[in-house]
Structures are given as structure tokens and as C-alpha cells.
Model the fold of this input.
Amino acid sequence: MNDVPGPENSSSPDGGFHMSYEDSCDRVPVLLIHGYPLSNMLWDIQLNDLTDVARMIAPDLRGHGMTDPTEPPYSMGLFADDCAALLDHLGITGPVVVGGLSMGGYVAFEFCRRYPERVAGLILAATRAGADSPETKEARDKAAGVVIAEGTVPIAEGMLPKLLAPDNFKAQPDLVDYVRDMMLETSPDGVVGALSAMRDRPDSTPDLPALDVPALILHGAEDQLIPVAEAEAMAAALPSAKLVIVPGAGHLPNLEQPEIFNDAVREFLEIFYGE
Ligand code: MLT
Done:
């Protein structure tokens, strides 16, 4: 992250001697929060392609990827506090662009509630503002029961066909394997904890009109898990949002159509946070 090309700087540590260096870290920090039950592998293409416009920070949430699990239940507040603690650890005290995909968006909304002064902008991908319906809450508990009884494999296999657009699921076995591997790295406690956090999250819809920061909303045209209408509703309710519907993508538009996704993010970051 720190060795990517950035603006040229020079310092004079020793009288007339100037040392030239590059550091992308003076660019706007972008916190990218993955969805359920994924990890920061979700953002690999963004981390590779966008470091020249932003300082990209992508944590593994508690119990996901390489981050230690703790005993469930978890909450969106816990995830948001973990993200804030990571920023503290990195010495980032100023505002950042908070990006989240699906459950990552739910965490982003909670981060906005808890740390409004730390939010410079929002990137909301494949997500929704509303809370779970009673039926969805029930399904979360059922899924948690499956994980406790049988582990995470049935959850991963059940979700896989719904995560990608049908054509991508059929034609891109490598992508399917990549997403499966990501899901199977998530610990059972992480999956159960995330399910409880999603089940109990509040409705963020009433918060939207007051989120007066630049926002970019990206949504796959073929998302089978969260309808496009949810993205349209968020775009209408936020004071300053641009909506990009990504063709040929399902629930993971950043992996399914990385060029379209990255171009939109790059343009957004350059317009609002460029030098
Ligand atoms: C996700 O992709 O993070 C989840 O599918 C979101 C959800 O189940 O609400």
C-alpha cells in the first residue's frame, strides 16, 4: 500500500541535501468494508488499481478473512468501532471516504452514526438502507443454526449462485472459486456473528437526508440479493448521490465488472477529493 506511485515530494533532512520520495498516503483515505461472509479479498482489484488516487484501507471484519473471531453475537456497532480503531491505529484522524458492499454498507451507515466527523464521503455498493423484515430475521436465525450444526459449507454453497449474475456464474468458474474460497475462510463464529449483526441492525433510511457528503452508489443490474430499487431509493434520499447501475453484474459488481466499477470510483474520487 505504501509503495505505490504517488506525488513527488522532497524533504531536506540534512541542510542542502534533498531526498525525493513518493507516498500515496497523502491521498484521501478510502475505507473499504467487505460484505457477508466475505473478506478483504473482495477488494483486491480495487486495491491494485486505485492506489494512485486514494489511500485504500480494507480490513477483514471480525471473524472474517484473517481477523480473529470472538464469540458471537456481533453488532454493526462492534464492526464500526473495529474500523474506527483500525483508523486510529494507522494514525488517520481526519475524515475518510467510507465504502461498503452489502453488509459493508450496513457497517458504513453505523460508522456514519457513530463517527460523523470522520466521514468525508460514501461509496455504497450492492447495499440497502432498510432493516431486515421479520421473515429475513427468521432466515438469519435459521442460517446461524445451520452453521452451528453443519459448519459454513452449506451457507457458502447456497449463496454462491445468488452472488453473481447468472451468466457470470456459468461462464467464470475461476471467479466462482475465488468467491467460494473467500467465504470458506470465514470462521463459523464470524458467520454467526455477522448474521446476528445484520438481523439486529437499525433502519438507516431516516438518516439518509442528513448524510450531506458526496456519495457514489453502485449496483449490479442483475443483483439477485438486493433489488436495484433499493439503490434508486438511496440515491433519491441522499442529498448528494450519483447512482451507477453496473450492467452484466450481480451482487459483486466490483469483481464482476471491475473496469466499470473502478472507472466510476476513480472519477468520483478525482472530482471530490483530487488535488
Ligand atoms: C451481503 O452480501 O453482505 C449480505 O448478503 C447482505 C444481506 O444478507 O443482507
